[in-house]
Structures are given as structure tokens and as C-alpha cells.
Amino acid sequence: MKLATSLQEIQPSYIREILSAASAPGVISLAGGLPDDTTFPLALMAKSLSDLSNKTQLFQYGNTAGYTPLLNYFRSLYQLPASHSSIVCTGSQQGLDLIARAFINPGDSVVMEAPSYLGAIQVFGLAQANIESVSQDPDGPNLDELETCFATKDIKLFYAVPDFHNPTGVCWSLAVRQKVAQLCQQYKVGFIEDVPYRELRYKGDFLPLVSSFCPDNSLVLRSYSKIATPGIRLGLVTGKADWITALNTVKQAADLHSSVPMQAVLLDLLQHPDFDEHLVKLRALYYSRYQALSQQIALKLPSNCYANSVDGGMFIWLSLPDCDVDALAQSALEHGVAVVPSSVFYQDRATVIPALRLNFTNASVEELSEAVDRLAKVIKLHC
Question: Of 100, 98, 126, which is closest to residue 253 (Cα–Cα)?
Fold first, then answer.
């Protein structure tokens, strides 16, 4: 059977494909955006999980939008306006897929920062969107490029990760958030705000969501993979009720509804009296690992290799001198350290800037030190 045209042009996820090799004995992985599984709040979930066998109603078919008590909790937690609604998804990745299928026609133009989240590039590619790229500054997208793009082209959506961007770790400044919201409203561009790392802020003050400045022009994607567990596969999309209704229609055809038992477990977890303390400990652990990796990079790598400073999230963006980053990443794997080359995060490979995305949340301080030792040898060979 011949593949669909849209699929023929999509490359498999480099990160998903490398996970097997990255988990081989002796390999230290800085590749996947994996939370540390020792931090999963299973003890806080234990009673809820054990009680599931007594709640047979949770194992019946459920509402497509989600488990009603959980949706009510989210409405209060996120202070949704009366005109807004929400839908629970099988991971925020499904939410992104639903958005693309509900709103994108082949040939529609979507703006993304370059570099950008690989999963979003895949989703919009499968939807046969025309992806327009704008470069990224230290505090967010290049606003001049963004406005020019909005003003000169027919743009339907702008997708971005404003809090601790994947892959660069950049966090948009308040001024950039306000300007992006104003531009989206001015040019009638829908803003898709993906915030899977928002709760992983290690220092500094939490900034308002970009969507808070253009609430009727935005959809917000949230994930519970990073603060609960990835395996429960739950995310959330919030926005105007009529937009959420469109997503609901697509989800009916996709999977009917996400796991109701896991939604009930998530609700119990989020309401657990010790959940906030879990987040405090998680942030402290990840911050210590970020500091350790940053220190090792500064100590052991050449001065022409620069790691950006981040205030949260799961990634460091290591800028490199001119080199073949794909060959470097392959060589690094052969030397026992898995990394992700910058090339996979660009829609237009001609604009690739040599860099590596390094994850620091799923390796110990000792492993991070050894990983940089191995990486230093590889960089010396290739750069």
C-alpha cells in the first residue's frame, strides 16, 4: 500500500529513533527530554491507584472532552474565563495534532521559531502546512522578522514554547510576550502557546502567559508528563469554547477519549497535600543538575563552545564552531554519549546553526561530568 503524500515527506523523529541506542549499556544519554524516573510521585499516587479497582465507573466509556471533575478542577486552577473551555488529550502532543487537524488546510502558513520543537515540525508537516521560520533572540523571537512575516504573508498560526523553549531553553521576556500578543491580535494570527516546562522554573519570577494578553486569540497546551509522569499520557488544551468544540470533534474521530482512570489518578495527584512539595524538590534537583552540567561545560570544553544560561526547563543549547553536527552527534554516540544535533530542529536545513541540545534532567551529576569528558574528545576531533 502506498503511503500518503504527507507522510512520504516526513522524517521519523531523530529523538525517538535514538532512544534505543541511547539506552544501550555504557551510553550516557543527554538526548531525550526525559524526566528522572526516580522523581515520579508514585507514593502520592499509590492510594489513588489502589482504589481504582473499586471504581468500576471509571472504566466505562467517558466524555471526549475529559473526566468532568478534572475539567472542573482545571477551570478553577487556571481561572478560565466563562467563554473558554478545555479538553484533556493523550499527552499535549495529541493536543497539537488535534489543533493542526482542526485548523490547518494544506498550504496554510504557520510560523515557528528556528530552531523549534521537532514534534511540532512533524505535526505541521503532516498537516501539509507551509512552515515559515523566524530567528530567535536571547529573549524570544526576533520581533522585526515576526512582524514582517505577519504583515507580508497570510499567516494562520504562530506556534511557540515561550517558557524554557525546546530546544534552546530561552524564556521570553515580559516585553516580548506583550508584543507578540499585540502582533497576533493586530494581524489576526492564532497563537499556539505550548508550556510543558512552565512549572520547572528554578530561579526568577514566573511570567504571565503570552495568551493572558490575547486570551481570545490563543490556545494553550499544557503537559503533565514533566511534573507527574510521561506514562499517564495526559495533557490539556484551553481556549475559546468554540475552538475547543472543534478539537472535541476531531478527538471523537481520533481516540474517543483519553484514559479516564488515569485522569482520575491525575486529579487526585494534583490535589494531594504534598504535591507542591514534590514540585519544590523536583525543581531543586533539576537545578542542581543544570548547574553541574554548566560548570562542567565551562571547565572542560573549548572557549568557542558556548552554553546558554537558563532559568528552568530541561535543556542547554551548546553552540559550536562551524562543523558537521550530524557527524559529531554520531561520533559522540560511538564514544558513549548521546546528544541531539541542532539540524533536527530546523525546517530549513540551509539555516542550521551548529549546536547541540543537551538534556540534564535524566543523568546524575557524576554521569553529567563523564558525559562532558566524552563530549570534549569528540568536539576536539570534529571542530
Answer: 98
